[in-house]
Amino acid sequence: MLFDPAARRRSRNTGRLFAIYEIVYTCVDFGAALAFVVGSVMFFSEAWMTAGTWMFLAGSILFAVKPTLRLVREVHLYRQGESDKVAARLRGEA
């Protein structure tokens, strides 16, 4: 099931995978915030206004990446869980 809170605790691999996605998500979040702050400062000067606009666009794109990362992570965890089930069946555990 997608967005299952227990998925990150299914195995050591899923926990590691979840942690990697969280680190990337946090870096993207920080990058978006930084782009908006820098863009805001740039807007105080006429000469930097165009560059500030580009920073706002970059921040917006990074904010759009965040939910995409969450969905990709969940699909990845779901697929890993499905492969774990298949491997368990092959070993005769399920």
How does this structure look, described?
This protein has 94 residues and is mainly alpha-helical. The protein has helices at 12-42, 49-90. Helices cover 78% and strands 0% of the residues. The chain contains two helices and no strands. It has a domain at 33-83. The two termini are 18 Å apart. The chain is rod-shaped, with a radius of gyration of 20 Å.
Give a quick precis of the structure:
The protein has 94 residues and is an all-alpha fold. The chain has a domain at 33-83.
Helix content: over 70%
Q: What composes the largest sheet? A: none
The number of distinct helices, counting runs of at least 4 residues, comes to: 2
List the uncertain runs.
Answer: none
The whole-angstrom Rg is 20 Å
Envelope shape: rod-shaped
Number of strands: 0
Structural class: mainly alpha
The overall average pLDDT, rounded, is: 89
| SSE pattern | HH
> For the terminal residues, how far apart are their CA atoms?
18 Å
- Percentage beta strand: under 5%
What labels would you give this structure?
2 helices; 94 residues
Which helices and strands, and how do they pair?
Blueprint: H1 12-42, H2 49-90
